[in-house]
Specification:
This protein is α/β, with parallel strands linked by helices and 347 residues long. It is built from twelve helices and eight strands. Bound molecules: thiamine diphosphate (TPP) and magnesium ion.
Length: 347
């Protein structure tokens, strides 16, 4: 089974066919801007010394993250990683809580207990990552297995980077998912670098999606700077999984537009590569598409841009007002209590 390379999305009609109306499209644009704005402000907070630990951004990956999250159903789940802030934004995690998480405050989703980008809100179906990569991938496979056992029509999305996809847990997770035809999507954000290691030193196949055939399911390569193509491919794969069609591996290709983390100036990435991918900026690309194909007006654009700015200003202020966690509550909410678990053997 050859890997499929997804076509770009060109017409408004095609987008309507994929299930999005004009309001949805403007909402996607808002989510893209919000995602970038949160990370830009996060970078400033880091420089101000307000963020403990290191700090990671997903610049260049906004469309990949927002596109998938737009395609997820309300009861679907996922394990997004450090480049996928747009997933949290799209599923409704309020920006002030993200800023609170960045600064280790009590109102962050992990209540100041975990790293600044180790974000997850289970109420939104999103489970916070641990550092070890891609350790969350088998977790997503486990959730998909639970959906199968419970006969729930829900789908799990497992994120990992192209570097992490070389590790054993990725193989084990994909193999089990293929064997059991589980409702899971493997979303590989291929940003061409794993810290300072370029992709040609990471894998020898042409596309990472080529590996899907070895596990018995479909592989698709999508341009991760085309938010609508990302949405269309994610939606197709998610609905296929929901209907019992098994997993899909989607390789979303972008370039990591900043250092591995904010301490890293990415001196090892050729400047020409940055210049080439800057011309394909996912947000500018979608903005141009909206102007050309959905007649986004100046007034609409201004309203969205100023609305995002206002939201982020207010969110930052609210997060600054959030207290640091009370040390007396250190071990609260770290371990699940038996009564919180729905597994029979814990009752
Ligand atoms: C098992 C493991 N080894 C090393 C690391 C340190 N580390 C964190 S991110 C990273 C690079 C990961 O590259 P990739 O999977 O391509 O994701 P990206 O950072 O490009 O999004 C490394 C080596 C880790 N978190 N886990
Ligand atoms: Mg990478």
């Amino acid at each position: 089974m050859a890997v499929r390379e997804a076509e770009p999305v060109s017409s408004l009609q095609e987008v309507h066919d994929a299930g999005l109306d004009r309001e949805d499209l403007l909402g996607i644009y808002r989510n893209l801007l919000t995602t970038r704005g949160i990370e830009e402000r996060g970078h400033i907070l880091y420089k101000q010394g307000k963020i403990p630990g290191s700090f990671y951004t997903g610049r260049g990956n906004e469309a990949s993250a927002v596109g998938v999250a737009t395609a997820m159903g309300p009861h679907d789940v996922g394990t997004p990683l450090q480049r996928a802030m747009g997933v949290h934004v799209t599923r409704g995690l309020e920006p002030w809580r993200i800023f609170a998480q960045y600064m280790g405050r009590a109102d962050g989703p992990t209540r100041g207990r975990d790293g600044n980008v180790h974000i997850g809100d289970a109420n939104l179906g999103l489970y916070a990552m641990v550092s070890h990569l891609p350790a969350m991938l088998p977790v997503a496979v486990g959730m998909a297995l639970a959906f199968r056992i419970r006969e729930e029509k829900r789908v799990a999305i497992a994120w990992c980077g192209e570097g992490a996809s070389a590790r054993g847990d990725a193989h084990e997770g994909m193999n089990l998912a293929g064997v059991r035809k589980l409702p899971v999507i493997f979303w590989i954000d291929n940003n061409q670098w794993a810290y300072s290691t370029p992709s040609h030193l990471e894998y020898a196949v042409e596309h990472l999606a080529d590996r899907a055939a070895a596990y018995g399911f479909e592989g698709v390569v999508v341009d991760g700077t085309d938010v609508l193509a990302v949405y269309r491919e994610a939606k197709r794969a998610i609905e296929k999984a929901r209907e019992g069609g098994g997993p899909t591996l989607i390789e979303s290709v972008t370039l990591r537009m900043e250092g591995h983390a904010v301490h890293d100036d990415a001196f090892y990435v050729p400047r020409e590569l940055f210049e080439e991918w800057a011309r394909r900026d996912p947000i500018e690309r979608f903005r141009a598409w909206l102007r050309d194909h959905a007649e986004m007006t100046d007034a609409e654009e201004d309203e969205i841009t100023s609305g995002v700015k206002r939201l982020l200003n207010e969110s930052l202020q609210r997060a600054e007002e959030s207290p640091l966690p009370d040390p007396g509550t250190l071990v609260a909410a770290v371990y699940a209590q038996p009564e919180e678990l729905d597994t029979p053997h814990h009752k």
